[in-house]
Amino acid sequence: MVQPARKQCLVQNIKTCKFVVLENPNADGSEPIYEIAAFSAVSRNSALIDRVARELMLDGRLIRAIMYMETTHGYYDAPLAILGMNKSVLPMNVNVEYWGSTFGNRQAMNDPYKNIRAGAEILKRITANVPQGTSVRHIATLYNNINAQRVSDYGARVEKIYLAQPWLRKAEK
Fold this sequence. Notes:
The protein contains 10 helices and 2 strands, in the order H-H-H-H-E-E-H-H-H-H-H-H. By secondary structure, the protein is an all-alpha fold.
């Protein structure tokens, strides 16, 4: 039996697909010069993240790490966002062009709760199709590119963010 494409597994919410992502010792998780912590949307969305994590029984820290990555790196498309022309919508950077209305349309993704829930639902569907205990770096790689075959720099960076929890330092100030 042929396994459906990874995208179809997520779109149809199939939980029996087997996503394999190989380790990549060259994946670079270091903080790039263009990562701007002040742009993080984690603190202002903390209550929504907690709510969604409870609703979907998902690791809120994973949601936070993805959101931190997306909002501290994804500011480059702000001019397109103002015009409603970007392919993905922050704070979880849900790609409405790629996913269509599977997780909500563009208008819905402008609602922070719906956006966070959509991103978390993508994460939940990914985790349903990887072996139990799969690392954050592997899951994050798939969040960024569902067809990835090896851990990416993105996945490695999200893992470092997950471990460091930089949003806690901001909250302490």
